[in-house]
């Protein structure tokens, strides 16, 4: 692309997000497969006028989510991930990404850049997790959306990390338990605990039950700023620390350390930003860092910044690795 095309392509990002979100809300991907279907068929299935269905399908084809063939539209592999009935579905993720709670604060990015504070409270009058607590339906969408990319992470983590040396795992801020369930299925000798707020625990308990793991996986409500339950030899923090500023992140880590046995370890699954001068990774962690700032007042961090946080919490970073878009940092008690 030319420089002009590059910039104009980037500036269409919001439209792309909303096209994908609208398709997910209408359930359109559920009606696309490898058998060609006309715009009229799709329109009837989705309950929208045929001309508008055709326009949406053309936009989805532009994004590589379907193919406009001679006899109708068919789904691509990427488009199939927006179905509600497939393993690895990203439908809830698309719904959350296109929801006003995420988009409206981004329109106030300049506020966050000037102040270093989250723009979310400026838009909605309260912190993001207070907002979710007041809206159970939105909170359920958030937990589902955070759980959906977990399958990729759970499939990659065992290639990066040896879980066989542990007997039990506590997933701190584990949401609906998606990551822990995947790990327990992969490693039958492990036991686990999903630890999260009271609002998240009922769904987590039901997901654990449906997975047939109630005998090996418990759930417990609490506040990781106050205390983390003891009993596990591995604490996992997936997409937790990047939601918080340094002071809050140190509190979480310190509470994990207090509950950690001498031989225990902490596994942080967050983006690890490249050091200055290194190329940005394909997953665009710099953009994720902006989103964390705007929504939560949090941030993505480099290995050196994780080392500083851990040192303040009485921990030592032993390793930091990245592969296939998944980053992890391991920490142990400082000697």
TrEMBL record:
GO terms for biological process: methylation. One of its GO terms (molecular function) is protein dimerization activity. Gene3D superfamilies: 1.10.287.1350, Vaccinia Virus protein VP39 (3.40.50.150), Winged helix-like DNA-binding domain superfamily/Winged helix DNA-binding domain (1.10.10.10). Signal peptide: none annotated. The active site is at 242 (proton acceptor). Residues 9-82 form the O-methyltransferase dimerisation domain. This is O-methyltransferase.
